[in-house]
Design a protein that fits this description.
single chain
Length: about 140
């Protein structure tokens, strides 16, 4: 029982840090041009968020989902958190592709910068949704 609480607390801490990073990068840097997107991506890389998501958060969520075999609703919500956190990892690669495409295609650079701004908001929304579904999963396991 204590081990499961510790795993839930660690998962909540990792999801909270993920939320903090993505909400922080939503407002900083305030620039919406390509230079701001490149600064944001380099700062995101410096946080180590991708490594934590891939090597700590996703396996932890899988272990928690495996432990919830009897709680179907909690397990589905936890799998939703897993999918949302995995989508954030995919968004990082998509963001890198958009930056590379903007640097190689100078004609559509403004369009790519706008797409990067939309992606920034989408990442923040995914992080908020992952935090909410993790909390709902924790509460529903007690029902």
């Amino acid at each position: 029982m204590v081990k499961m609480r510790a795993l839930w607390a660690f998962g909540a801490m990792l999801i909270g840090l993920q939320l903090l990073v993505y909400l922080g990068l939503l407002v900083w840097p305030g620039r919406t041009d390509l230079q701001g997107a490149m600064m944001r991506f380099s700062d995101w890389q410096a946080t180590g968020a991708l490594a934590v998501q891939i090597f700590a958060l996703l396996p932890l969520l899988m272990v928690l989902a495996w432990q919830l075999r009897r709680h179907t609703q909690a397990r589905l919500l936890l799998l939703g958190t897993l999918i949302l956190s995995g989508a954030l990892v995919v968004c990082a690669w998509f963001e890198l592709w958009l930056i590379q495409a903007a640097l190689t295609d100078l004609i559509n650079m403004g369009d790519r910068a706008q797409q990067l701004v939309v992606l920034r908001w989408a990442e923040a929304a995914l992080a908020v949704a992952a935090a909410i579904t993790l909390r709902l999963s924790y509460v529903s396991r007690g029902l």
